[in-house]
Amino acid sequence: ILNVEQSPQSLHVQEGDSTNFTCSFPSSNFYALHWYRWETAKSPEALFVMTLNGDEKKKGRISATLNTKEGYSYLYIKGSQPEDSATYLCAFGTQGGSEKLVFGKGTKLTVNP
Amino acid sequence: EPEVTQTPSHQVTQMGQEVILRCVPISNHLYFYWYRQILGQKVEFLVSFYNNEISEKSEIFDDQFSVERPDGSNFTLKIRSTKLEDSAMYFCASSLPLGGRETQYFGPGTRLLVL
Q: Which of B42, B9, B14 minimizes the C-alpha distance to B111?
C-alpha cells in the first residue's frame, strides 16, 4: 500500500517567519509529486508538479525541492504572511491506470499577524 | 481562468437516501476524478473516468456508487443508499491528459453529511 506522510501535522508561525514542512513517500517507482494549497471553502490550488530528482520549483515566496532517491520533498515559505494560512497537501502521482493521486494528510499552517 | 465547479456546496441527507453530487470540469479536459476526505483523514481516490467509462475505481467505490457524464459538461457522482460513513467532503477533479504527472484541477468540494 502506497503511503504518503506529511509533517508536521500543524504549524503556527509569526508573520515574517520562514517555515518549511516535509512530505515523505516511497522512493521506489517514483513518478511524480504534487503540492497543493487548500484554504477552507476553496478549491485546492495546484502549486507544483515535480518529476525529477533534484527538482527545485518556485512560485513567489513558496518553493519546493524533491529527493526521489530518499523519498522526500520539502516545501518552503519565505517571510510568511497571514494569507499563507492554509493546509498544504502533497500527493504522489501514480503511474499506469488512471494515474490517480495518493495524498498525505496535510500540514495546516497558521500565520499569526 | 477556467475552474472546476461543484454543486451543492453542502448537502445533508438521511441515511438510506440517494444523493447526486454534481461537477462541471474544465471544458477541454478529458480525465475526470472523484476523491473524498473523511474528517481528519487523508484525501482518498474514489474513481476516475475517461471516454465515457470508468478507467479505475478504488475499493471504496462499491455498487452503491456510480458516476455519469450525462452531457458534454457535467460529471456526477451518485450514492444510491447513503450510510453514516459516507459523510465526507467530496472533491471532483479534472486533467487534460492523464493526471499522474499533469496537474489535476480540483473543485471546491461538496460537504456531505449523512444523518
A: B9
Pairing of strands B110-114, B88-95: antiparallel
Q: Name every chain B residue with its beta carbon within 8 A of the beta carbon of A93.
A: 99-101
Judging by beta carbons within 10 Å of its beta carbon (0-12, 13-18, 19+), is residue B109 exposed, middle or buried?
buried
From chain B, pick out residues whose CB is under 8 angstroms from the CB of A101.
33, 35, 43, 45, 99-100, 104
> Is residue A62 scored above 80 in pLDDT?
yes
Question: Would you place residue B1 in the very low, low, confident or very high pLDDT band (cuts 50, 70, 90)?
Answer: confident
Is B43 in contact with B91 (CB distance < 8 Å)?
A: yes
**Separation between Cα atoms, residue B81 and residue A101, nearest integer Å:** 27
In sequence order, which residues have a C-beta less than 8 Å from that of residue B56 and are 6 or more positions away? A97, A98, A100, B47, B48
- Using an 8 Å CB-CB cutoff, list residues of chain B that contact chain A: 3-4, 9, 31, 33, 35, 41-45, 48, 50, 55-56, 91, 98-109
Helix (H/G/I), strand (E/B), else coil: A84? helix
Write the secondary structure of B72-86 as one string of H (helix), E (strand) and C (coil). Answer: CCCEEEEECCCCHHH
Take residue A60 and report the three cell numbers written for it: 513567489
Which whole number is the average pLDDT over B80-104? Answer: 92
